[in-house]
Amino acid sequence: MGTAGEKTGCSTVRISGSSSLHSERLTTYTMTGETLDGRPVYKSSRGDYLFYYRSDGDWHVGPVLGTNRISMFVEDNSMYAEDITGTWRLYDGVFFFLETGASESLAPPVQA
Q1: How far, in Å, CA of 90 to CA of 60, rounded?
Q2: What pLDDT shows up at residue 59?
Q3: Which listed site, 49, 53, 75, 103, has its alpha carbon 20 to 30 Å from 67?
Q4: Which pTM was predicted?
Q5: For the chain, where are the alpha helices, taking DSSP H only?
Q6: What's the half-sphere exposure (Cβ side, CA atoms, 13 Å) at 91?
Q7: Side-chain half-sphere of 25: how many Cα atoms within 13 Å?
Q8: Within 13 A of 95's CA, how many CA atoms are on the CB side?
Q9: In sequence order, which residues have a C-beta less than 8 Å from that of residue 79 and are 6 or more positions away?
Q10: Do 30 and 49 meet the contact criterion of CB atoms below 8 Å apart?
Q11: 94 or 5: whose pLDDT is higher?
Q12: Tens digits of residue pLDDT in 49-98
């Protein structure tokens, strides 16, 4: 529990974009309660992780937590995923390329 005025981050964020490459990873991620390298870990419903990787100074998206075995990354050292402002790079099997249409946002509340 944080102190008054201390930011704790949004529990759910959404990565969206126009790319058909890795479109399954352009989805909603929810905080797991874990931290890695001092930042919260998020997980999608399909099992991918969104996490900060201090060795590279990037936020990563991939199937294995805490590695550089990833499908996407963004050069940004924000404390929370909703504050990321960099441009995501998507892996096409050979190279990472810029996805200028991808961005993060707070996910809207789920309607029951």
Answers
A1: 10
A2: 95
A3: 103
A4: 0.80
A5: none
A6: 12
A7: 21
A8: 3
A9: 7, 9, 38, 39
A10: no
A11: 94
A12: 999 999 989 999 999 999 888 888 999 999 999 999 888 888 877 777 67
| Residue keyed to tokens 């201390």 | 6
For residue 74, which of 59, 62, 56 has the smallest C-alpha distance?
Answer: 59
Structure tokens at 89: 């790079």
Residue 87 φ/ψ, nearest 5 degrees: -100, 130
Q: Which helix (H) or strand (E) holds 43?
A: strand 39-44
Q: How far apart are CA 72 and CA 19, in angstroms?
A: 12
Residues in the chain, how many?
112
What whole-number percentage of the chain has pLDDT above 70? 76
